[in-house]
Predict the 3D structure of the following.
Amino acid sequence: MNNEDNELNTSLTLVLDNVIPRDPSIDDSVYGYELNFMMKFINHTDKDIKGFIAETFFYDMFGELVYTLDLKYEWDSILANDSTSFNTAVDLNQFKDADMRFYNLPFKNMTFNYNIKSIIFADGTII
């Protein structure tokens, strides 16, 4: 890991608070299999963050990689030295074994990790 990666990953922390599966056969508000993510983003810098891109990794309890996902955040600013809650969802293909393995992985058995790829601050600077 280079110094830029260290700066990126120490500037912003991503916390996965919960993952909720939604099944279309019992939930009329979704059209397909979906995972809802409840997250928290913590800004450790003295500048407001306007947006970021992160590669996220989800592992099972044995440490085996189950799913990767690129996360792009470009909504409300994350204020300097503050945090914000964020909810998002991913649609999964019921005919793909990898997608359904992720869908069926209990949150309590899931490990989450990430790598921040880019941060854009409200003042226009980018790291």
